[in-house]
Amino acid sequence: MSKKWYEHFVSVESDTPNAPPPANDAAMAIAQIAATVAPPPPPASFAKPAAAAAMGQLTSFDDIYTAAEIKGAPNGFTIFKVSDMLASEHIKNMSAEMKKGSIMLALDAAGVKIQDVIQDAVRRDQALDAFERVHQKAVEDLEARKIEENRKIQADLDKYVSEQKAKLQANLDEVAKQKESFIGWRQKKQNEEQRIADCVSYFVTDNPITTAANPRPAASGKTGQ
Question: Mind spelling out the 3-state secondary structure of 182-199?
Fold first, then answer.
């Protein structure tokens, strides 16, 4: 049986020609790889109404990758495969350089280019960024619609309150007007009664006419025996 990829690594001296390049060179190479992968437009599936409505719910990353049409690598070496390898019990406690060399040996043994793995990582990152932008826009659009809806509701509410306040005031004004009219009429009535009483007073001892000065006696409420 051939050695496992990590067994290949531990048998290789750090000064062999296959040793990994310096960290700075590797970082520059990765940056160059990432730069060659142009940011794709958001997948059409992100913009579908049903998908936009579903964004209010927690969407799994696998769903996002599927919507972005990111498929697993034919050789199985996605960035997540490499992540699992780095977390392996066999190398997780090694130094960063040793981990890197181990992964590079494994990829070489499988005929996989590190560029392909980096491109897989970049595409997934771009898919997540695209989904974030679309999701954020969906939330912002929802906020804008609800703000406008609330504005209209508030305007209707203010109009209703204003109309009801006007009705309340109209009722108060009508009562006040009627009271004022009644007070005016009662004053005229008292003047009229006084005029009548003055005329009757010439002919009777006990004036039967009620006036403001001679009001009608209040009823006792008792009935005769």
Answer: HHHHHHHHHHHHHHHHHH
